[in-house]
Amino acid sequence: MKARLRLAGTVLLLFALVAGCTFYWNPLWVNDRQIHYRLWRAGVRSEYVNVQGNRIHTFEAVPPDGTPGKPLLLLHGLGSRGEDWAPLAFKDGKLVVRDMHKMFCLDVTATGNGAAGQ
User: What's CA 31's distance to the chain center, in Å?
Assistant: First the structure.
C-alpha cells in the first residue's frame, strides 16, 4: 500500500514538473492548442500556399449551407497572427462570422506561421 502511494506521488510530482516546465518555456502553447482545436471543430481549414516564392499560412471558413457567401479577408497587425481573429469570430462556441461570409484569414509574410521571404 505504501509503495503504491509513493509511486502515485512520484508520478504526480513528475507530471507537475513536466507541466511546469512546459508552461515556463512555452507559456502560450496551451492557449494555441485550444484555439487550433476550436477552429478545427468549427470546420475551418488551415493550409499553406506559395505566393511568389513565399509560404503563407491561411485559414478558410465557408458558410455551413455551402453557399459561396461574401468574401471577408481578415489581416492581422504587426506582431500578431491569423489565430488572433479566432476569439472575435466565435460566439457561444459557434463560428458566427462564416454564417454570412466566406472567411479568409492570412498570416502576413514573416509573422505568425508565414515564412520569411527571400
Answer: 8
Do 46 and 58 contact (CB within 8 A), yes or no? Answer: yes
75: number of CA atoms within 13 Å, CB side? 5
Residue 52 falls inside a structural domain: yes
The sheet that has 45-51: what strands, in order across it? 45-51, 54-61, 101-106, 70-75
Question: For 46, which DSSP code?
Answer: E
pLDDT digit string, tens, across residues 48-87:
888 888 888 888 888 777 777 788 888 887 778 888 888 7
pTM above 0.70, yes or no: no
Domain coverage including residue 93: 42-118
Look at residue 106 and tell me if it is in a domain: yes
- In the block, cell 479577408 appears at 73
pLDDT band at 115 (very low <50, low <70, confident <90, very high): low
DSSP per position, 60-105: EE--TT----EEEEEE--TT--GGGGHHHHEETTEE-GGGTEEEEE
